């Protein structure tokens, strides 16, 4: 009897053990299922992440192309079936580059599709950006300044559709944007009376530059009138590499915005226009931004001039039929010493219907107007009106325009309705300066009621530009001014009138100036 009871109790103890084993087994099988699910999800997520970064690689590949010398060549003509895949990191990407807003806009839409396999799983991701050249009409590495009650600067878009469409370009600097006089005008549109500007294509009421069909009505004393939204921004920039700390108050790594000789860094438009009494400065916003520092390569420009034979007849007539720096393949090219260029201007002064064409490269300081020596002879008058047709003027050194002179560098194809003609012309460099010995590469307009600088394309200097009293600057394109000395302004408008109608294509030749991303989206 006793043995039976012991055996029964021993059998009963097995039941809890079996129950525990069953429960643990169930939990184990559940955990195995969860782990399998997690592994599957991780595998899928790994493939998705891999495909996303492959798509991003395709996107960056397209942006590098768009920053190059021939962005038009980046355009994808076949969409989407005939686009060839590019292998990347055990995956592939397909990229479409399309014009955004038409071939005349300078803006692009880039779509990149990436496909990748991870642990046997294949996934596809797709991303898209819309971007274009950085919207800088006027940028200076050093100070961008305006001074004097008669100083007028208009930064307007070219080919406006409506007020604010496209929005006017930005003004920026890595060091300082400074307004020396409370009467200085920036984009000040017919505040109390209608102001006009006479440009190469007609005389305009200033509000017409911004696409207004009639004079806009607003309160010019309002620190933030509604009209400000039409204009561009002031960009307080910081270089991507080697930023420096500025001494304005409070100290900042970004450029300062100052008035007169104050060191106070102004933060907002209403403070600038209201508290600081800069009522004639019209901008949409004040922004801080990190940007790449740009540069222009002189070698392609030198090569263009060395291959340019369009001035052969003028060279011969001026007595410089074989310029010193020309190659054997083109002995009458357009690469001149300073003295040879002077002789050309002496000849043009005596033959004012003559002009230059194509890319012209001067190795040494140059001057338009006034008197200079040609070939070691006595000083002789230089051309007071120099015209360069469908071309470029490059100076290794400084260029001075004496009082009441005119320099015209035109690309008439920019007015063409045919994009095949207008786009290459709009990407041209109009005027470029590079250092030469003690000459840092500066453009000096001494001023005068008759002084005019008219150009189509990019204006680039290694050491800045000065606009003297009563001088007129009439540019369709963009300006980028470097500096050899931060104590000297990159751009200074001293009681002159500067009208810059911004064309985004004009910045295409600048190395590393970049693409501004206007929108980004992940499609899948």
Mean pLDDT: 89
The helix count comes to 6
Question: Domains counted in the coordinates: how many?
Answer: 3
Largest sheet: 14 strands, parallel
Q: In percent terms, what proportion of residues is strand?
A: 25-35%
Q: Can you lay out the helices and strands and say which pair or pack?
A:
Elements: H1 2-66, E1 86-88, E2 91-99, E3 108-118, E4 121-133, E5 136-140, E6 144-147, E7 152-157, E8 170-173, E9 176-179, E10 185-186, E11 196-199, E12 202-205, E13 234-239, E14 256-259, H2 269-275, E15 286-291, H3 298-306, H4 312-318, E16 335-337, H5 338-350, E17 356-363, E18 366-368, E19 371-373, E20 379-381, E21 385-396, E22 399-401, E23 406-410, H6 419-426, E24 429-434, E25 443-445, E26 452-461, E27 465-467, E28 472-481, E29 491-494, E30 497-502, E31 515-522
Parallel strand pairs: 5-8, 5-28, 6-9, 6-29, 7-10, 7-30, 8-13, 9-14, 13-15, 16-17, 17-21, 18-22, 21-23, 21-24, 22-25, 23-26, 24-26, 25-27, 26-28, 27-29, 28-30
Antiparallel strand pairs: 1-2, 2-3, 3-4, 4-31, 11-12, 19-20
Account of the protein in words:
- The chain folds into three domains: 2-133, no CATH class; 136-293, no CATH class; 298-515, no CATH class.
- Helix 4 packs across helix 5.
- The chain has six helices and 31 strands.
- It starts with a helix and ends with a strand.
- The strands form five sheets. Strands 5, 7, 8, 10, 13, 15, 16, 17, 21, 23, 24, 26, 28 and 30 form a 14-stranded parallel beta sheet that branches.
- The protein has 524 residues and is an alpha/beta fold.
- A hairpin with a 2-residue loop joins strand 1 (86-88) and strand 2.
- Helix content is 21%, strand content 33%.
